[in-house]
Design a protein that fits this description.
By secondary structure, the protein is α+β, with helices and mostly antiparallel strands. It has a single domain, classed as Ribosomal Protein S5, domain 2 (2-Layer Sandwich). Helices cover about 40% and strands about 20% of the residues. It has helices at about 10-20, 55-75, 95-110, and strands at about 25, 30-35, 45-50, 80-85. The protein has a 4-stranded mixed β-sheet, sandwiched between helices. Helix 2 crosses helix 3 (about 95-110). It is globular. The two termini are about 15 Å apart.
C-alpha cells in the first residue's frame, strides 16, 4: 500500500464519524482513533489544535506525524481502517524520534500493525 495524502481523511464529517464510532488510544504525545472502513485501503487524518502552538509549530508537528506514519504504512499497517492522529500539547517541543516512537506505540496498542 502506498501512502498518498490524497487518500487521507479530508472532510469534517469523516473525522467526526471516526471520533464518534472509533476506538481511541493515547500516550504522552498523541491520541489515535481507529475505525474499520470496509475499504481495501487505510485512510489517515491528522489533527493539531491551536493549543499546540502557532501555525509553524502545528505544521511541523503535522509533517512529523505524517512522515512517521508514511514509513510504517508501506510495510506494517493493516488495510481497511480510518485512522485519525491528534497531537497533544506536549508534542510541540519534542523531536521527530519521539513522535515516531509515539506513532509506532499507538499502532501497536490499537493492533493495526501486521
Amino acid at each position: 500500500m502506498d501512502f498518498k495524502i490524497s487518500k487521507g481523511l479530508k472532510k469534517d464529517k469523516d473525522f467526526r464519524k471516526v471520533y464518534q464510532q472509533g476506538k481511541s488510544f493515547a500516550n504522552k504525545y498523541l491520541v489515535i482513533y481507529i475505525m474499520k472502513n470496509n475499504l481495501d485501503e487505510s485512510r489517515v487524518g491528522v489533527s493539531v489544535s491551536k493549543k499546540v502552538g502557532k501555525a509553524v509549530i502545528r505544521n511541523k508537528v503535522k509533517r512529523r506525524i505524517k512522515e512517521a506514519f508514511r514509513i510504517l504504512v508501506d510495510k506494517d499497517i493493516k488495510k481497511g481502517y480510518d485512522i485519525v492522529f491528534i497531537a497533544r500539547i506536549s508534542s510541540s517541543d519534542c523531536e521527530y524520534k519521539d513522535i515516531e516512537k509515539s506513532v509506532v506505540n499507538l499502532c501497536k496498542k490499537s493492533k493495526i500493525l501486521k
